[in-house]
Amino acid sequence: MPQIGWFELLIIVIVAVLVIGPKDFPVVLRKIGNWVGSIKKYFSEVQNSVVEITDIEENKMEEFKKEKNKDEKKS
Questions:
Q1: Phi, psi dihedrals of residue 2, rounded to the nearest 5°
Q2: What is the gyration radius of the CA atoms in the chain, in angstroms?
Q3: What is the pLDDT of residue 75?
Q4: How far apart (Å, rounded) are the C-alpha atoms in residues 13 and 8?
Q5: Which of 31, 6, 29 is CA-nearest to residue 16?
């Protein structure tokens, strides 16, 4: 994965200010920040849902194994 250093980041900011304009640059940064925040929140919710589903499946599997062991001990 390519890494961006400080110099490259500075060039990107300067080009962005020239293209967007200094007046609208803070507005654009705020919108990008909101987008990034909402994307992070979405992926966090998806990750929590996956963890919750896998926990439920693991609990069901453990209960199944316990019942199976009880049935084997009875036999």
A1: -70, 145
A2: 26
A3: 60
A4: 9
A5: 29
At residue 69, the pLDDT reads: 76
CB 25 within 8 A of CB 17: yes
Which amino acid makes up residue 47?
A: Q
Ranges of residues in the chain whose predicted pLDDT is under 70: 1, 74-75
How far from each other are the two terminal CA atoms of the chain, in whole angstroms? Answer: 58
What token pair was written down for 2?
Answer: 């390519």
- Two tokens at 75? 């036999």
Domain ranges within the chain, ordered by starting residue: 22-74
* CA proximity to 33, closest of 44, 41, 22: 41
Those residues whose C-beta lies under 8 Å from the C-beta of residue 20, and which sit 6 or more positions away, are 28
